Amino acid sequence: MIRFDQVSKRYPGGHEALSRVSFELENNEMVFLTGHSGAGKSTLMKLIIMMERPSQGQVFVDGVNLNRLKNHHIPEIRRNVGVVFQNHQLLFDRNVFNNVALPLTIGGYKPREIGRRVRAALSKVGLADKEKQFPIALSGGEQQRVGIARAVVNKPAVLLADEPTGNLDPALSEEIMNLFGQFNQVGVTVMIATHDLGLVKQMSYRQLVLSQGRLNAK
Amino acid sequence: MPNKSNRQSKAVSGASTHTHGIADKTMAYIESHRTICLQTLGNLCGVWLTSLMTWMVIGIALALPTILYVLLANIGNLGGGWDGKPRISLYLVDQIEESRAKILLSTLAADADFESVRYISSADALDEFQRNAGMGDILASLPMNPLPIVIELEPAELTPAELKLKVLQLETMVEVDSISVDLEWIERLFALLALGERFVATLGAFLGLGVLLAIGNTIRLAIENRRAEIEIIKLVGGTDRYVRRPFLYLGFWYGFGGALVAWSMIKLSLLFLSGPVETLLHSYQEVFTLQGLDIAETLALMFVGSLLGIIGAALAVGRHLHQIKPG
After folding, report:
1. Three-state secondary-structure class, residue B155
2. Each residue's pLDDT tens digit, A115-138
3. Which of B236, B262, B233 is nearest to B247 (CA)?
């Protein structure tokens, strides 16, 4: 589903965030991406949703070589890859329902379909009763779950999560990790970047370890 | 498991290429336009005071050239009362016999180049003069009527050159003492009007550019304010077109609202002007009503306003949107 082939990313100024990274994620696999902060986890994920382009090497998503992708096809890739951001990236001027509905509104779905899917996603993350609230009124964990609902609402094939438990207490973190496990069980390819090694050990998924931009598989 | 994942990926690709039919997709597209169009207007009305100020700026810039255009059109109308049909007055030589004057009159009346002829005898002229000028006493004290017989001609549609020729012909007639043609001032008026139209067009172009920049700048601020939203929309797969759309509608509403403001301003200033103008013209025995914008002109104003709004927004969006990461 996702394949990196000798991928390097150098930022202007010479800092090399990733160097010659290669790995492959099977369809329906779930992996953890671990490493210290600054090891290149975020950069790797940004390459998958084309927030960045590699300096060298090739990235494939669902068989598509992202290097060959024209700019106007980027949205199609992003619609197929749900992303959960560490800082949630919610819109504070609209309520939970409309935040979650955003990918569907963009995709041109009918209002009835949008309502059905948003409510399904919200009940999946346990926020069925909060759809009319505004993000500001929610706790950190709830905001994170709104972000997750938005990431899965249009049923993407791939789900990426960048430090999804970064600011949460252990119990909540585990709950959220289990949620990702559930999505994986219904066929979604999941990649979670985290430095919460305790949690990673509890769950038996493959681990990709980044250190100083290099990948050591475990 | 592989089966399941196959199904999942099919469902996904189905969602992105839209399994629902073209009709449904078109409906959803129209619906999304309608929603964004109304939402944008709603947002503008939500901060109506700020919006009103922008509308006023655009309105004034649109109203200024438009009202000058309206006034020019009115002056044109005023001149239009004589347009191409100046009156020619033939003052006949002194002591001409009335019968000879009448013969001349019927000759001229038979001439297809004149639409109407009017005979004013010396006595009639004296009467009229006494009545209008209020100098009855002085005139009465004169031993004899000093006024000549006058034949007033209204030429048919003639070009200025033809008219000049005609006047030259009339001057050669022995019965004619002198001729006055109220043509020159009309020529000057039309020359002035043409100059005025150029001026209005130039002013209009400059102010149109001003409107474009004002809207562009307002849209730039709107883009800045919604930077976070744009980033997120791009991250969850919003196309550039989708991101651009609300700003184009914003530009449209600014332009359209500005045109409405301009229209109201013009209406008000014409109401304000019409009283004095009509009084003034009435003193020249002219029945005149100040004409505002007709329906076609009103629609043109709305169209130009909206178009400037959309173009201004498109320019701003084109310049600033691609600066927002991710690309």
Report:
1. strand
2. 999 999 999 999 999 999 999 999
3. B233
CB atoms within 10 A of CB A106: 21
Give the torsion sign (CA, A32, A36, A39, A40).
Answer: positive
ipTM more than 0.85?
yes
Q: How far apart are CA B18 and CA B246, in angstroms?
A: 23
Distance CA B278, CA B288 (A): 6
3-state secondary structure chain A: CEEEEEEEEECCCCCEEEEEEEEEECCCCEEEEECCCCCCHHHHHHHHCCCCCCCEEEEEECCEEHHHCCHHHHHHHHHHEEEECCCCCCCCCCCHHHHHHHHHHHHCCCHHHHHHHHHHHHHHCCCHHHCCCCHHHCCHHHHHHHHHHHHHCCCCCEEEEECCCCCCCHHHHHHHHHHHHHHHHCCCEEEEECCCHHHHHHCCCEEEEEECCEEEEC
CATH architecture, range B88-181: 2-Layer Sandwich (3.30)
Write the pLDDT tens digit of every residue in B23-33: 777 877 888 88
**Contact indicator for A124, A185 with CB cutoff of 8 Å:** no
To 5 degrees, how large is the angle CA B69–CA B70–CA B72? 65
- Write out the E strands in chain B: 88-92, 114-120, 150-155, 176-181
Contacts of A157 in chain B (CB under 8 A): 8-9, 12
CB–CB of A41/A162 below 8 Å? yes
Query: Which residues of chain A make contact with B325, given a CB cutoff of 8 A?
Result: 51
Domain spans in chain B, listed from the N-terminal domain onward: 32-81+188-323, 88-181
Tell me how far apart the alpha carbons of residues A115 and B212 are, in angstroms, rounded to a whole number: 40
For residue B14, what pLDDT is reported? Answer: 39
Looking at domain A2-217, its CATH superfamily turns out to be P-loop containing nucleotide triphosphate hydrolases (3.40.50.300)
Whether chain A has a CB inside 8 Å of the CB on B16: the answer is yes
**Beta-carbon separation of A76 and B16 below 8 A:** yes
Contact B15 A89 (CB under 8 A): no
Residue contacts between A and B (CB atoms, under 8 Å): 99
Binned at pLDDT 50, 70 and 90, residue B81 comes out as: low
Q: How many CB atoms lie within 10 A of CB A76?
A: 15
